[in-house]
UniProtKB/TrEMBL annotation:
Residues 534-552 have a biased composition (Gly residues). Residues 1-28 form the signal peptide. Keywords: Signal. Residues 151-171 have a biased composition (Polar residues). This is Protein DD3-3. InterPro entries: Protein_DD3-3_O-glyco. PANTHER family: PROTEIN DD3-3. Residues 70-80 have a biased composition (Basic and acidic residues). Residues 57-80, 149-171, 525-554 are annotated as: Disordered.
Length: 677
């Protein structure tokens, strides 16, 4: 022991200052604010989330996160159909430089800092952010079937019972799945995805420091559910821990890569070449007695796979299929509106001998992460939270999609070389000469008689944080906005004052200062929850939901103000925002809505559609007429929490607006500007 202590001490003295700075921080965290990150919340009225294992491993504080949106003024409760899914229009093409794109401003806060220039703003750690999404064809049932993306209506983790034996037959495996998957519970990755991870050997070439990784229960496989960061194999939804911890992953995954924001752009070629968007990855395929594909194999490499009777198959990623092209020649020659078409075996194929025509995502975007301040959750350059403008995908089939967004924040120290340290450096007490560059709670010899104990957990020295959205939709564009350039303006934040919502944020429009041209369009839309009471004990923060209107409820609306310093809306007669708007698309049909009716719709979050019955003779508008409907509460209590909104163009000018309910001078401001040039 003394010898070992000495060996380490020299190394540690060199890194001493750095280690103390970096490793004392235990609560790091990443919170998505736009899209609204769940941080594993669903609809709980408590300040702390009910279940940190519900969907994914966030490693975040128990507070933070946003509840799923509700369609109407009441809680969606046990009816997933009453949850609101944000509905963004897909891009109109994937052609680089084309103007028919849709953009969403993603915003997040991260605790440890990242990015900027190494020379002028050195950071205390290496880091990168990985942004990804997953989509599937939308279905009319809110909960769908076993493999449909859904939020669920309870905060419980979906079930998983392990196989009783590696010889399990097909019917037994199918039964296990049927018994486990419950449409009341969330689903992002599929049950098969987790089960496969549970059965497959982990990558034994990985650096695990001195962590002792277990074997899975009963089956004797040291599986991909065990990693340096998750040595006990804890389960979070149906996420695969090995895939969670490493990017680019070396097997096919259901995720499509959007962007990597890194502190070191030298690594961009590594990320881009390794991204599953364009690179095919192998997986071992084994069969049941009847010749059908098993959803799992124990083998994680070609050699052991084929030596044990399996077939090593290379699979490709896709955003959707193009079954109308039935030969390789037809498929590979397509380039419809900028997308790439490949004739290949899809990652989720059941018949692995059959190539199909696949539409692939663009290569992952890789760029320098913007600077953010260490230990100051959310402080980026000029005090702004960091953002990324996501160009939404284009799906040539014109079908609607159901999707989720995922973001990971990866930090590692300089205590070991992040990309070249492998299992040869793992601590193995039996073999002389192998010394892990890091060790749990080592003692540092500072030359005197007493050793200093460093606060180090080797499962945390390189660490990933994560947040994900609830389910949202990417809608195919209606004819009237086929070639529009569409910016999305939404609302971020939740009810409460700063100490009550932290580490989530208070209300604001996002982006809150949009510059666009008179030929660009903006889709205004928002969602809110009726269960943001922030009750219970408050956890690490404060309980309570300070704010206007009925407790626990989020509401937003838009009225024009003359100046950002004003807190009173302009009377309609003096306003110009709605007179200068051209409606490209509006929820519930027809676009020949008068400026006054548009103003009423926006001010009431869609509670009203028209002032007079004669303006809105259509049956679907019957229940939305000011003349006849129960009066709207002046704090919007009986207005819907979510609003599908409208796609608008504006004439040149500057338009300031606010939400009348949430704006409360000296307490909170929810104001924003659209500048049209
Ligand atoms: C995080 O960074 C480490 C290098 O420090 C790398 O091995 C790993 O693949 C990365 N994981 C993710 C999810 O980015
Ligand atoms: C960036 O990554 C490259 C490739 O791994 C490495 O050689 C270089 O030292 C890194 N630069 C910094 C500033 O960390
Ligand atoms: C503004 O907020 C404070 C504190 O939350 C509240 O007491 C007050 O009534 C609010 N004012 C209005 C006009 O809603
Ligand atoms: C909230 O606003 C009210 C005025 O509506 C003001 O009297 C009060 O001091 C404010 N509270 C805080 C905490 O700023």
């Amino acid at each position: 022991m003394l010898g070992k202590l000495y060996r380490f001490s020299m190394r540690w003295i060199a890194g001493f200052t750095l280690c103390l700075l970096v490793l004392h921080e235990t609560a790091a965290d990443l919170y998505l604010h736009s899209l609204r990150g769940s941080n594993n919340r669903l609809n709980e009225a408590t300040a702390t989330r009910a279940n940190a294992n519900r969907v994914f491993d966030s490693q975040n504080n128990n507070r933070g996160g946003y509840n799923v949106g509700d369609v109407d003024k009441d809680k969606s409760g046990n009816d997933e159909g009453k949850q609101y899914r944000m509905q963004y229009f897909q891009s109109g093409s994937a052609t680089p430089g084309a103007t028919d794109k849709s953009y969403i401003t993603l915003e997040w806060t991260n605790q440890h800092g990242c990015g900027g220039s190494e020379d002028t703003d050195p950071q205390k750690q290496n880091c990168h952010m990985v942004l990804q999404y997953m989509c599937q064809d939308d279905v009319s049932s809110p909960v769908g079937t076993a493999d449909t993306l859904r939020n669920g209506v309870t905060t419980q983790t979906p079930n998983h019972n392990r196989a009783q034996s590696l010889q399990e037959n097909k019917a037994t495996a199918q039964n296990r799945k049927n018994n486990n998957v419950n449409t009341q519970r969330v689903l992002q990755e599929s049950w098969d995805w987790y089960d496969k991870c549970y059965m497959r050997e982990r990558n034994k070439g990985l650096f695990t420091a001195d962590q002792k990784l277990k074997k899975n229960n009963g089956l004797g496989v040291s599986a991909a559910i065990y990693t340096r960061q998750n040595p006990n194999g804890n389960r979070y939804g149906y996420e695969c821990p090995e895939e969670r911890d490493y990017f680019p992953y070396w097997h096919p995954t259901p995720w499509t890569d959007i962007a990597v924001l890194t502190d070191n752009t030298t690594l961009c070629s590594y990320f881009q070449e390794g991204s599953f968007n364009r690179k095919a990855y192998g997986e071992c395929v084994e069969e049941y007695g009847d010749g059908s594909r098993k959803h799992w194999s124990k083998w994680n490499n070609a050699q052991e796979c084929t030596a044990n009777g399996g077939q090593w198959v290379v699979f490709s990623s896709y955003i959707e299929k193009a079954p109308q092209y039935t030969t390789a020649g037809q498929c590979n020659s397509q380039a419809e509106r900028g997308n790439r078409y490949v004739w290949a075996v899809p990652y989720d194929a059941t018949d692995v001998t059959k190539a199909e025509c696949l539409v692939q995502a663009p290569p992952v975007d890789c760029k320098q992460a913007d600077w953010s301040r260490s230990n100051h959750l959310g402080n980026g350059v000029n005090g702004e939270a960091n953002r990324y403008q996501w160009t939404l995908p284009f799906f040539p089939s014109n079908s609607d999609k159901r999707c989720v967004l995922r973001m990971r924040y990866n930090i590692s120290t300089d205590d070991y070389a992040p990309y070249s340290t492998d299992s040869t450096k793992n601590l193995n007490d039996g073999i002389e000469g192998i010394a892990s560059p890091i060790e749990d709670n080592p003692y540092v010899d500072v030359g005197g008689r007493s050793a200093l104990r460093l606060n180090i957990n080797t499962d945390q020295t390189g660490r990933i944080f994560q947040d994900r959205s609830h389910v949202f939709k990417l809608l195919s564009r209606p004819a009237e906005i086929k070639s529009d350039k569409i910016f999305n303006v939404n609302v971020r934040g939740k009810r409460g004052n700063i100490v009550q919502v932290y580490p989530a944020v208070e209300y604001d429009f996002i982006p809150n200062n949009l510059q666009m041209s008179a030929t660009d369009s903006v889709h205004i839309q928002w969602t809110g929850s009726n269960s943001h009471n922030n009750g219970g004990g408050g956890g690490d923060g404060q309980a309570g939901d300070e704010g206007q209107g009925q407790g626990g409820t989020d509401r937003s609306n838009i009225v024009q103000i003359a100046d950002l310093n004003d807190n009173f809306p302009m009377p309609f007669e003096r306003s110009n925002m709605w007179n200068n708007a051209n409606i490209r698309w509006i929820y519930h049909g027809k676009t020949d809505v008068s400026a006054e009716n548009l103003a009423v719709t926006m001010a009431s979050a869609g509670y009203y559609r028209c002032v007079k019955k004669s303006d809105c003779p259509e049956a679907e508008h019957n229940n939305y007429i000011v003349e006849t409907k129960t009066k709207m509460n002046n704090l919007l209590n009986n207005a819907p929490a979510s609003f599908q909104g409208a796609v608008l163009r504006f004439q040149r000018g500057t338009y300031h607006y606010m939400s009348t309910r949430n704006n409360n001078f000296s307490n909170r401001s929810q104001k924003s500007t659209i500048t049209v040039v």
